[in-house]
UniProtKB/TrEMBL annotation, chains A, B:
GO CC aspect terms: cytosol
The keyword DNA repair is assigned to this record: no
Name this polypeptide is given: DNA-binding transcriptional regulator, XRE-family HTH domain
PROSITE patterns: HTH_CROC1
Length: 96, 96
């Protein structure tokens, strides 16, 4: 059997993924999308991303970057600040 | 000379990094930090990140994720929505 070398870095299974903010953001995006009655496919096209990517974001399994937040906000016809207000109120509700 | 194999994926040097949003966010963070007269080191500690990481964010060479935006906003004593308002106004000014 081959001897395993010592590997530097984080141990297997270690994660710093914070699900809560991603989930709150995803729920905010989904709610705003439903409000406008826009299909996931159409919103993804407007934002210039893949539908599957948007799906992951709405489910909270993908942490969006600032660039993506801005793109999705534009596609939803609102500002990123509006999207953050929605996200933070959901986050506050989930914490308390 | 060794023959180079065909590599799948994006060509070398290809990038989708969008510097504008990252720079606008960085400038907003720096401006708010200066307003509160907080040292980079102290703000990084409050946000629970490395000082060098915060430095990269302020210079716009690192794209922040949603989780990071929330952490930095909390450390600055404002909401992520406030930070987005600042970012978007800077972004609008740089575009026009």
């Amino acid at each position: 059997m081959q001897k395993r070398s010592i590997q530097r870095g984080r141990p297997a299974g270690a994660t710093t993924y914070e699900a809560e903010p991603a989930k709150a953001f995803g729920a905010a995006v989904r709610a705003l999308r439903m409000e406008h009655s826009v299909a996931q496919e159409d919103l993804a096209n407007l934002a210039g991303i893949e539908r599957s990517h948007l799906g992951k974001i709405e489910r909270g399994t993908h942490m969006p970057t600032l660039a993506l937040i801005l793109k999705i906000a534009r596609a939803l016809g609102c500002s990123a600040a509006d999207l953050m207000v929605e996200t933070e109120s959901r986050l506050a509700a989930s914490v308390s």
